[in-house]
Amino acid sequence: MASSRVALLLCVLLPLFTSSSSFTLATSYEKVKLDLYYETLCPSCSIFMTKYLVKIFENGLIDIIDLHLVPYGNAKLVKHGDNTAIICQHDEPECKLNIAHACAIYARPDVNKHFEFLHCIEDLVVKNKYEMPEWESCFGKTVGIDRKIVMDCYHGPKGLELALKYANETNSLKPPHEYVPWVVVDGEPLREHFDEFMTYVCNAYKGSHLPKACENHLNRQVVSNVKENKVCNVASNTFSRAKMPQVSKWTHQMKMPTKH
């Protein structure tokens, strides 16, 4: 009798295990790689993050996206005396805010957590309320970002280490970026079509579990509304010797010893 009960139990459970396994296979997919190269005080970058990129967290597209944020933009590594310094397109405040973004990403690698914090900062940038200590208010407005880890990173050598990491990532782009925001989907730069990134993501997705948000993007003709004067161009990022003293305090904090 006992053996017949065991056999009956196995007959009942086997279809359940088989069904569960099939479901797992049906919902497994390859995420689409989405890289955003940006700088914190470029108006187009702030608008892109707060008005466009944020939507993927609201409509479920983040479930099929591997989002990678690179806060460096059009900054340059330049010689400053015996050291090399990072000079940002929008001067010292942008260098500082780029570091704040980098440290938040470092403190909480989960993109769902750090993007909320970065979105808060960029929303303040749009409102022109980003100077310290105003951006620090985002610690109280968002959840999951450790203030101490971020601030220790921001004021310490870790911030510089991250800045150099993102500098190397940006400078290694092939083809090189021409402006920011510079959006790349599965290794292909979208160039002036970056505002249509969701259409590119949906059409690049090869999995079986297609988010409802993709329904209006499949096989859709891409028409960009971006104009060249609305981006922050690399070509306009020039630094003269006369400008160097204006950032001397920050470059001293960010200086890197020359290699021997």
From TrEMBL:
The keyword Signal applies. Residues 1-22 form the signal peptide. Its main location: secreted. It comes from the Eukaryota. The keyword Secreted applies. One of its GO terms (cellular component) is extracellular region. It is found in: Secreted. GO terms for molecular function: oxidoreductase activity, acting on a sulfur group of donors, disulfide as acceptor. Keywords: Glycoprotein, Secreted, Signal. Pfam families: GILT. PANTHER family: GAMMA-INTERFERON INDUCIBLE LYSOSOMAL THIOL REDUCTASE GILT, GAMMA-INTERFERON-INDUCIBLE LYSOSOMAL THIOL REDUCTASE. Belongs to the GILT family. This is Gamma-interferon-inducible lysosomal thiol reductase. It comes from Thalictrum thalictroides. The lineage of its organism: Eukaryota, Viridiplantae, Streptophyta, Embryophyta, Tracheophyta.
